[in-house]
Design brief:
Blueprint lengths: L9 E2 L8 E2 L13 H4 L3 H17 L22 E4 L3 E21 L11 E7 L12 E7 L12 E21 L7 E4 L1 E9 L4
Antiparallel strand pairs: 1-9, 2-4, 3-8, 4-7, 4-9, 5-6, 5-7
């Protein structure tokens, strides 16, 4: 099974099961700077810089957040969602209310990519998507550390780590908040698996 689901558990975040990214509650993807935007000087160059930034913003994201809920594991080092800096977040909504017990993270196994992996992160669950407007309504499901050198499946091209959620709750969506990474100036999330045994009726 490409999602490495354990007996009795299913990944409710993956797109084939109805998972979707809540873009308004997810960090902007990292867009590479053009050479003109890094060397602009003077009024005309500043205008070119501004125009270049506008074009860059209009282009499709090269590393969209939808990749984290892809059913298949990562196939290359750039098969991931990247955002600028060491902190950020990604939010996923499920097809229905689910009972989650475990979260899984995957990261590319090349040691050169370790520094961009999340280090400390927290998981917050919400009973409904609209609850994001009031963070106090969220359920703290735990704070964890991801150590990309811990290979659960030897021979794979990625590292895989499971985390038992501190509170098994019925949630409609979750936010994964990266609090820091392993030293890079960007953070990359390859796959996020939200594992549970039951999908409940719509509320």
């Amino acid at each position: 099974d490409e999602t490495h689901e354990l007996p009795g558990l299913r990944d409710f975040a993956c797109a084939p099961r109805g998972g979707r990214i809540l873009g308004r509650h997810t960090s902007p993807c990292l867009r590479p700077l053009s050479s003109s935007s890094t060397s602009a000087q003077g009024p005309l160059s500043a205008l070119k810089k501004g125009f270049g930034q506008l074009l860059r913003a209009l282009r499709p994201c090269p590393s969209p957040p939808s990749l984290v809920i892809n059913y298949a594991p990562p196939r290359s080092f750039d098969d991931c969602f990247c955002f600028s800096g060491t902190t950020g977040h990604v939010s996923v909504s499920f097809a229905n209310v689910v009972e989650l017990s475990e979260l899984q993270l995957l990261h590319w196994s090349d040691p050169d990519q370790f520094s961009s992996a999340p280090n400390t992160f927290s998981v917050i669950g919400f009973g409904e998507d609209q609850a994001f407007r009031q963070a106090a309504q969220g359920v703290d499901m735990g704070t964890f550390r991801f150590l990309p050198g811990n290979a659960t499946f030897p021979g794979e091209n990625f590292y895989f780590q499971s985390f038992s959620l501190s509170k098994v709750s019925a949630v409609k969506s979750i936010m994964l908040r990266v609090l820091d990474n392993h030293g890079a100036d960007k953070t990359c999330l390859y796959r996020v698996r939200a594992m549970g045994a039951h999908m409940l009726a719509s509320q």
